[in-house]
Every structure is written in C-alpha cells, then in structure tokens.
Amino acid sequence: MTMTVRALHTEDRPGVEAFAHIRRITLPYLLFTPESVAYNIEIAHPDAHYQALVAEEDGVVIGTAQIGVVHDSAEPGQGYVNVYVHPEHTRRGAGALLVRTAERHLAASGATKSFAWVLDAPGNRAFAELHGYRSGRSAHFLRLDLANGKLPPLQDPPPGVEIRPASDYAVDPRPLFDLDAEASSDEPSDVDYEFTDYEAWLRETWQHPLFSPELTSVAVVDGRPAAFSAARIDGGTRYGTAMTGTARDFRGRGLAKLAKNDSLHRARAAGCTEALTGNDAGNGPMIAINNWFGYEICATEVRYVRELA
Q1: 3-111 CATH
Q2: Main-chain dihedrals φ then ψ at residue 205, nearest 5 degrees
Q3: Are 257 and 236 in contact (CB under 8 A)?
Q4: Quick count: other Cβ atoms within 10 Å of Cβ 63?
Q5: Mean pLDDT over all residues of the chain?
Q6: May I ask the CATH architecture of the domain 144-300?
Q7: What letter does residue 155 receive in the DSSP assignment?
Q8: β strands within the chain, DSSP E
Q9: pLDDT tens, 60-86?
C-alpha cells in the first residue's frame, strides 16, 4: 500500500471529480460539484496560499483537504485545514498524512494558527485532539424537505418594502456587496474578516458557479437593499442558503424572514426538493428563523484550533 498526498490542479478532471464525490459523501449538508471545486482553486487569492489536497492510496483518491491562510483578516497568521476521508477508507493514515502536509504548507505560508471544522462524532473529535487541536465553538447543519414539507405562505411586504431577485442587480451588484459586507461582519466567528474587496466578492460570491442570483431574494426598502437571502444550487434538486442577513439600520423588522421565505418559494418552484443551511450555535436569531421555517438539525460540527510551531 502506497499513500501519497498532492495538490489538485484545475486541469486534473478525475481528481477534481473524486474530490467533489468524497465531499458529497462525507458532507451531504453542503453543496459541492466538480465545477465549484475547480473554480475555488482557479480564483483563489495568491495571499491565501489556497490548496485543495487529495490523499491517494495506490493511485485511488480516498481523502481530501482544503487549506489556506485567511489573508483578509486584521490578525495575521491564521490558517485553516478541513480534512474529510472517504468513510470506507478511514484508519489507513490518509487523514494524518493530509494534516501533516497541510500544516507544513500553512507554516511555510506564514500561518501560526490552524483552524479546523470537525464533525461532532467521537472518532472525528478524537482524531483532532490526537493531533494537538483543542475544541471551540460549534455550528449546526440544518435541512428542510421542500418536496413534502410545508412552507409558510408568502406574505405581502409592508409599505415601502419590495422583494426582488438579486438578478435585478446584474448590471451593478455593488449595492448587494455593501449589504453582504455589513451583514457578514456581524456573523459569529473565531476569525474577523475585513470585507472590503469588491472585486474579490465578485469572483468568490457573485460569479461563483453555485450562486443563483435568480433564487437569491433581496428586501428593498425605499430603493435600498436592506436584507437578503443568498442562494446556491448544485444544478440538480439541492438548494443551499449561503448567507441571510440584514443591514444594521433595518434589523428587528422581519425583513430577513421575508427575503428567505421568498427565496425558498422560488427554489421550490424551480424544482428544488431539499434546502440546506448552517448556523453558528450561538446565532439565536437565525436559529429561530430557521425553526420557524421547519428546518431540522441534521449534523453538528466543532471548530478546533492548534498553534503551529
């Protein structure tokens, strides 16, 4: 048995497809396609030192990792590694080799910390702790059955408010960037981001192959985007909410709930049968909104961190 780890390149179609396949098996709560995996490699910022790694056993891909440096944070030296191994090929050393390779790359790229999301299962947590990681905050994956579940009926927005698809901003999406930047800056997180690069947002969000401007809904107040629910789709029947948020001046008015309800109805009308999302365990307001829609927790993950020598 020969185990090796290497970095993926966009032209490696078999490797990219294997990466997406393993992620769909190990993380069915997130959307992955070969196109999205290749795109993330292609558009990564040079300062992120991003790599998608695969572990191969005798030439067969059995494990994956995404690694990089959080270059758009005010605090330097923060890296991340997220490792997932095919469930039929665990305990063969693939995960350990991926972690060692990732940490060498991160340290060489200037990272002094390594953050990792780990599924909340005894074996996964023991693996992280064996490699020197300590646990922190947790987050939930949630699922809603769009095919058989009942959505709240669409409501007429209050006076002065209209609900529009993000595709209405195709010519100039800058107002949506401003809204996303403000809402995202208040998201609970271990890492603070400086959300100021419009061109990067265009590449990483607006032009991403999973992003759907047609299914993304925006609550507009007196002509200004005030709340939104950003949608991703995998080209099949699965729909994911990438972000739901409200500008600070408009919070407490139910606008995010209006936008998300509109997006969910759009998704169901477009043939989506499964809705997925995620919440930090401490984000009470968003958890309450998703409970109102009927989402149910389907898995939990824990954020681990390790100081790199």
Answers
A1: 3.40.630.30
A2: -120, -65
A3: no
A4: 28
A5: 95
A6: 3-Layer(aba) Sandwich (3.40)
A7: -
A8: 3-7, 51-57, 60-69, 78-85, 113-119, 134-145, 161-165, 217-221, 224-233, 238-246, 274-280, 296-307
A9: 999 999 999 999 888 899 999 999 999
